[in-house]
Amino acid sequence: MASEKMELFSCEISSSIFQTSSGAYRSSNIIRDISDRKQSDYLLKQTRQNYEGFFQHIDEFLFVLDDKGNIIHTNNTVTDRLGYTSEELQGESVLMVHPPERREEAGRIVGEMLNGLTNTALFPL
Fold first, then answer.
1. Collapsing DSSP states into helix, strand and coil, what is residue 93?
2. Residues 36-57: pLDDT tens digits?
3. Beta carbons within 8 Å of 92's beta carbon, 6+ residues apart
4. SS3 of residue 17 by DSSP
5. Domains of the chain
6. Distance (Å, rounded) from C-alpha 123 to C-alpha 106?
7. Any idea what DSSP says for residue 110?
8. pTM for the full model?
């Protein structure tokens, strides 16, 4: 008897039981190989972890803003050096972290950033 190689893989199983006109019960089963999807999920998770590690440990102030300039996410440098918590910043205008006398200038630059005209902002927080 020849030795058979068995391979394990991730699958998704859908099963339905129905009764035929003769009264007998039958089942319909579908088995899908989802190995590629599981591998993609794993790679996506690793990419997110790498991104988050980089994002949180870079020594620059990083803000993720919505299209109106409100803060969605910040890195640890922002909270550690400015003294705010993530919860205090989330949903607030990024202009709140700028000195009042520089907010007009900051608003102009943030607007340029949101419109893709520049990618850096050099003024005090």
1. strand
2. 999 999 999 999 999 999 999 9
3. 70, 71
4. strand
5. 60-114 (3.30.450.20)
6. 8
7. H
8. 0.63
